[in-house]
């Protein structure tokens, strides 16, 4: 696939690296020649220095031959205009734009070409702030979870959580899980990470204290399964403090204030006033989230969950560490610098999120070969989960008509479940794959993603997997 990426920031650079590894022809456009040189030094890609929304620069980048344009600069207007030009001048087939401003996002009709042929020609609109907000809300809904990812339109969820010594299943084989669960509750543990190393689970695998366990199940069944992995039910987060009143902080408070006690701290007086005028039940505090005296004054020790989501990594880290030290049960911090994430997670902050990583993960769903419905990067890019559709027939496909146990899968994947006609079927060796089945697959090595996509596409039927 020929892909043009506008912007060599964290999102653009991460995408370029992932797409280049998957044998796509990638061109990156940016004003910063140093960023482009760094990319070109380590990746087999083309680069073009210049303004991303200038017609001559888009022409140099090869938009006329591009299958896809991903506009991921820091400027909404640049991204929107670039997509418009790519559509009108170069007839680029698919256009994706990253848009942050609520002024645009609050008017989806601007981009809805099904209702208005004069709408802005963007096929996929990506809002990092919206994605991060939804991600955090899922973590709040499942106390104790490390990651929560929806598949199949929310029918299935992949949940990661830590196994603690008090859990019923610790030091027991995975097959024992079925004996503890009600008959109608089905799940599949698709991966275990032990001391940062992947363990492909079988029925004989023993869960150890400290393991990071990934399991798939229907959304309604998740709480029951979580309770089996942890003897003591995780207390829900009723009292929540949010650091930062920007798009993410505001959206979180708006979504939570009806059923939670929410306090929001922001250092900008004007922004604090605007947020206070728009929210009904949230307590707005003007101040510095890194101010220990302020946190103590606001009874930080009574807070169940502290979420720091300012646009400053250092402020988020310091306030998160301070909140944890002052007695907050659970801390989530937005940290985009990946070198920071490795240092702080599990040491002082419970969950460190990266808006750029979440955005990149979402974008991958639109760039993969085959009919890939969704892709989620996990463990900071070390693993991946994907939802892919089986197309073709027994005559044209290597998997349709075969049982899961008969298919020669790559060694580093686990098939979690199949969605067939809206019904969730937990995977097992004797389950036969049918045309149009949606499969949820966990990959401990993301490099296997291309092989999976090819395996599910009838036109790619070949002997590629004889390795």
Automatic annotation (TrEMBL):
It comes from the Bacteria. Residues 146-235, 373-458 form the RCK C-terminal domain. Keywords: Ion transport, NAD, Potassium, Potassium transport, Transport. GO terms for cellular component: plasma membrane. GO terms for molecular function: potassium ion transmembrane transporter activity. Residues 1-126, 237-353 form the RCK N-terminal domain. InterPro entries: K_uptake_TrkA, NAD(P)-bd_dom_sf, RCK_C, RCK_C_sf, RCK_N, Trk_Ktr_HKT_K-transport. This is Trk system potassium uptake protein TrkA. It comes from Thiomicrorhabdus sediminis.
């Amino acid at each position: 696939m020929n892909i043009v990426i506008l912007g060599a920031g964290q999102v653009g650079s991460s995408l370029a690296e992932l797409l280049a590894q998957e044998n796509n022809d990638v061109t990156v456009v940016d004003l910063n020649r140093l960023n482009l040189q760094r990319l070109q030094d380590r990746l087999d890609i083309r680069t073009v220095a210049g303004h991303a929304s200038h017609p001559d620069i888009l022409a140099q980048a090869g938009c006329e031959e591009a299958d896809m344009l991903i506009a991921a600069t820091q400027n909404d207007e640049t991204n929107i205009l670039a997509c418009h030009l790519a559509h009108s001048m170069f007839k680029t087939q698919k256009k994706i734009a990253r848009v942050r401003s609520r002024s645009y996002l609050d008017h989806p009709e601007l981009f809805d070409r099904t209702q208005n042929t004069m709408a802005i020609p963007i096929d996929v609109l990506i809002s990092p702030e919206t994605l991060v907000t939804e991600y955090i809300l899922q973590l709040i809904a499942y106390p104790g979870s490390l990651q929560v990812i929806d598949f199949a339109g929310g029918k299935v969820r992949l949940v990661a959580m830590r196994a603690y010594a008090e859990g019923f299943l610790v030091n027991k084989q995975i097959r024992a899980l079925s004996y503890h669960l009600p008959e109608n509750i089905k799940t599949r543990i698709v991966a275990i990470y032990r001391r940062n190393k992947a363990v492909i689970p079988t029925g004989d695998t023993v869960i150890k204290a400290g393991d990071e366990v990934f399991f798939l199940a229907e959304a309604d069944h998740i709480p029951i399964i979580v309770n089996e992995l942890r003897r003591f039910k995780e207390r829900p987060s009723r009292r929540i403090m949010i650091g930062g009143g920007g798009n993410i902080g505001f959206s979180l408070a708006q979504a939570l204030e009806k059923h939670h006690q929410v306090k929001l701290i922001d250092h900008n007086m004007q922004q604090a006033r605007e947020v206070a005028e728009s929210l009904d039940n949230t307590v707005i505090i003007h101040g510095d989230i890194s101010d220990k005296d302020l946190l103590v004054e606001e009874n930080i020790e009574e807070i169940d969950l502290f979420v720091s989501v300012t646009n400053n990594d250092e402020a988020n880290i310091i306030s998160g560490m301070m909140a944890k030290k002052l007695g907050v049960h659970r801390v989530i911090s937005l940290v985009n610098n990946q070198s920071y994430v490795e240092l702080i997670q599990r040491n002082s902050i419970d969950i460190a999120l990266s808006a750029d990583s979440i955005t990149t993960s979402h974008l991958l769903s639109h760039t993969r070969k085959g009919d890939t419905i969704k892709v989620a990067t996990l463990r900071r890019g070390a693993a991946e989960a994907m939802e892919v559709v089986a197309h073709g027939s027994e005559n044209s496909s290597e998997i349709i008509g075969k049982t899961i146990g008969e298919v020669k899968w790559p060694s580093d994947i686990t098939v979690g479940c199949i969605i067939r006609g809206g019904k969730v079927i937990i995977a097992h060796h004797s389950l036969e794959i049918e045309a149009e089945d949606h499969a949820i697959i966990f990959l401990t090595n993301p490099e296997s993603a291309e092989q999976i996509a090819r395996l599910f596409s009838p036109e790619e039927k070949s002997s590629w997997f004889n390795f």
